[in-house]
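For practice. Supply one:
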Amino acid sequence: MRLLVTGASGFIGRNLIRAVPGDWSVVATYRRSVDFPAFVERLGLANIQPICIDLTADGAGDWLKEVGPFDACVFLAANGDPARSTTEPVWDLQSNTISLIRLLEKATFERFVYFSSGAVYDGLAGAVSPIAAVAPKLPYAISKLASEHYLRHFQDVSRIKDLFIVRFFGAYGPFEPERKIYGRLVRRFAFEKNPRFTIRGDGRNLIDAMHIDDTIRAILSLLATPEDGAVVDCASGGAISVRTLVETAADVFGVRAELSYEGTVPEYIEFHSVDEAMRARYGFTPQIKLTEGLQRFAAFLSSVQNDEARRPCAPH
């Protein structure tokens, strides 16, 4: 397979390119992560070609003449911080939607896997699925939903054959941004053994994230399935409150959490997915329980710290 992965330097992208079959030819785009070519080189995978490109720029799709065509695309390029969309909505729209349009103005794909977001259910409460009527107000969710509509247009004009819109609810694990809560919990409770943790908001809002290894299995299953495309939720199915997450993480690492609360969160989630399509149509169910996933994540972060400690100091 000839595969394009946009936003490959991000959290999901780095894990994906480590897992693709060795006989696939992969072009992995990135924009700002100057360490990404070195990351790919350390993997020692000759089938991964990193390319630095700003997909939001005029003519951004012209480079496809040199590196295309592709059989499939996993589109991960996006604003990775939903909260930032409230203060920078134009940048969010460019990151989530304009980049997608620029690509599909120039390219065609047999199979297209687009990572949308469970955030499109913003404003709803209780059980949700792709048949729910959505009208989000969070700018990040608005741009993700707009991208879904543009994808249907590009499928209608034959730029895409099989389209998978994945309303993704979240993941945690190796290479996640340091600002994300799972890594902060591991560092606080597993490494520092510090019981104090401050939760943004009241802690009753829901969170539903799977271990990144499960996420990668989900992506590969969509790329390999003989089934036609669809709009699907990709969630762990085990939504819990943020407070419960924090208390569970503390317990996993033998700490009794001492919680405090401050401020508010722009993305206050009160919904959970009941969509069964990933299991019923594509044979995917998450396998890694939260307690095991946190332990795996701690082991990874510990190995990174040990590698850094063994690294020779630069000469003065």
The chain has a mean pLDDT of 93. The radius of gyration is 20 Å.
